[in-house]
Amino acid sequence: MISKVFIVGAGQMGLDIGQVMAKAGKKVTFRDMTDEILAKSMAKLNKGLDKQVAKGKMDEDTKAAILANISTTTELAPAADADLVLEAIVENVEIKKTLFKELDGICKPECIFATNTSSISITQIAAATNRADKFIGMHFFNPATVMKLVEVIRGLHTSDETFKTVYDLSAEIGKDPIEVKEGPGFVVNRILIPMINEAIMVLEEGLASAEDIDKAMKLGCNHPMGPLALADLIGLDTCLHIMDVFYAETCDSKYRAARLLRQMVRGGKLGRKTGVGFFDYTK
Ligand code: NAI
């Protein structure tokens, strides 16, 4: 049974995941680098809850119950009695490994370690610990308060017991999990990012305009959003990074990043976050 959850990284993903866990009755502790970051994150969480209350989507009692389940810290020591540690820090393998190595010495032996990584090998991070059987990928989608999917990813050594606990937990907190064996990009990004890359190649070849490529996939495949607008939303740097990981892991030329994608990243056109990508967001 998972009742105490220690979330490392109260950023975009960690904060939403923590909120989902707290709403499901779990005791959640957020750990981030400074009190300032934590104060900002908690203000954001509060604001989000207030909005839901104002819209009539949540009552005051639920909001109070969520907040009562949450605490914050800048230390790792309070992870000692956690049943689950969920990591959602920067996407850097060395930083993640250092963190888990330290946690391995702090947490109780039965504590499960989960990472929300979108591209790094679960087995590789698990190797920094002495509990690879209790190490697993728990990949949420953005925004985690809304998106139903969780990819529950087995590393090489993940035990069936660990898998079942995390899979059941995902369902318990109101998500709809799938089982995935480890492989670059897992399921969603493995299919999605090469599709986006292909759309960029179609644009680069001058076969259709950006507007028409997106229109084609919306009207022809019933996608809610076109691939180029989606690339702008995800961030072109992130899309490129993921393509490069696929290529590095497989040496398969089908994962060659579009030249235009690389050029746009080099030129600082990263999508919504810089105001310009395939579409202009400055107006
Ligand atoms: P973010 O940059 O919004 O948040 C990361 C947080 O971790 C920051 O608040 C930072 O201060 C904190 N942090 C960094 N090192 C730390 C440490 N050693 N201890 C405690 N806190 C630390 O990043 P975001 O977008 O939430 O991504 C986090 C993870 O989730 C990454 O592995 C990313 O690949 C993955 N992910 C991201 C998605 C997205 O759409 N942004 C979707 C699914 C997974």
UniProtKB/TrEMBL annotation:
Q: Has the keyword NAD been applied to this entry? A: yes
Site feature Important for catalytic activity, where: 139
Which SUPFAM superfamilies does its entry note? 6-phosphogluconate dehydrogenase C-terminal domain-like, NAD(P)-binding Rossmann-fold domains
Q: Where does NAD(+) bind?
A: 9-14, 32, 91, 96, 118, 142, 273
Q: Pfam family of this protein, just one?
A: 3HCDH_N
The record places domain 3-hydroxyacyl-CoA dehydrogenase NAD binding at 4-182
| Biochemical pathway | Lipid metabolism; butanoate metabolism
- Source superkingdom: Bacteria
Biological process according to GO: butyrate metabolic process; fatty acid beta-oxidation
Which InterPro entries does the record match to this protein? 3-OHacyl-CoA_DH, 3-OHacyl-CoA_DH_CS, 3-OHacyl-CoA_DH_NAD-bd, 3HC_DH_C, 6-PGluconate_DH-like_C_sf, 6PGD_dom2, NAD(P)-bd_dom_sf
Show the GO MF annotations. Answer: 3-hydroxybutyryl-CoA dehydrogenase activity; NAD+ binding
3-hydroxyacyl-CoA dehydrogenase C-terminal domain residues are 185-281
Question: Which keywords appear in this protein's UniProt record, sorted alphabetically?
Answer: NAD, Oxidoreductase
Annotated family: Belongs to the 3-hydroxyacyl-CoA dehydrogenase family.
Q: Which PANTHER family match?
A: 3-HYDROXYACYL-COA DEHYDROGENASE FAMILY PROTEIN, 3-HYDROXYBUTYRYL-COA DEHYDROGENASE
- The protein, known as: 3-hydroxybutyryl-CoA dehydrogenase
